[in-house]
Amino acid sequence: NAGVMQNPRHLVRRRGQEARLRCSPMKGHSHVYWYRQLPEEGLKFMVYLQKENIIDESGMPKERFSAEFPKEGPSILRIQQVVRGDSAAYFCASSALGTSETQYFGPGTRLLVL
Amino acid sequence: GIQVEQSPPDLILQEGANSTLRCNFSDSVNNLQWFHQNPWGQLINLFYIPSGTKQNGRLSATTVATERYSLLYISSSQTTDSGVYFCAVTYSGAGSYQLTFGKGTKLSVIP
């Protein structure tokens, strides 16, 4: 019974490069959430997706960040033209239902921007 | 938005001691979860507990929804309990799916 999978676990990018973070939800889960943990800000919601739909992206920075959850394959969080302030741990969570239910978290991707 | 406050912010325990961590929230919640973030950074689900009491081994949790607080009890602490404990809630004002996290309680258990 595999849990939420994220890869890579660690990612190093130079300023201006692109970062692509992948998340495979738990089996049977069709709701995916991304959260970011910045050192001084704690864990914050970024985006909520269902298959082929972005339900709520109110926590996403307006520029450079995008997310998708295609019909086939993992959910992808994409950060274009990374800056040092993007260095953080990015966590993906999934649930079977979309509201008021346990969210199960993956191990996170630690992004370091040089 | 909802405010989630955890106390104490830091806690140092001798191995074998018991502790109580508190989470206060400012509005009615649909969901409340407790997490343990271990020293390797992984977030581990401990409890889903919007109300009532649950126990799992040396850990137990109680949420009193009407008074807007939750407590996490750790008994006979072990060094492997070290890490940061987070409380997180969802509420109707944010679609009932956005988890809002507290700042956490950093627990250090020393041998």
How would you describe this structure in keywords?
heterodimer, A: 114 residues, mainly beta, seven-stranded mixed β-sheet, four-stranded antiparallel β-sheet, 0% helix, globular, B: 111 residues, six-stranded mixed β-sheet, five-stranded antiparallel β-sheet, 56% strand
How many strand segments of chain A?
11
Overall strand count of chain B: 11
The quaternary organization reads as heterodimer
- Mean pLDDT value of chain B: 95
Largest beta-sheet characterization of chain B: 6 strands, mixed
CA radius of gyration of chain B is: 13 Å
Low-confidence stretches of chain A: none
Walk me through this protein's architecture:
The complex is a heterodimer of chains A (114) and B (111). In chain A, 0% of the residues lie in helices and 51% in strands. Chain A has strands at residues 5-7, 10-13, 19-24, 31-38, 42-50, 53-56, 65-68, 75-79, 88-95, 104-105, 109-113. Chain A is built from no helices and eleven strands. Chain A is mostly beta strands and 114 residues long. Chain B is mainly beta and 111 residues long. In chain B, strands 2, 4, 5, 9, 10 and 11 form a six-stranded mixed β-sheet that branches. In chain B, strands 1-3-8-7-6 form a five-stranded antiparallel β-sheet, with no helix packed on it. In chain B, a hairpin with a 2-residue loop joins β6 (52-56) and β7 (59-64). The relative contact order of chain B is 0.34.
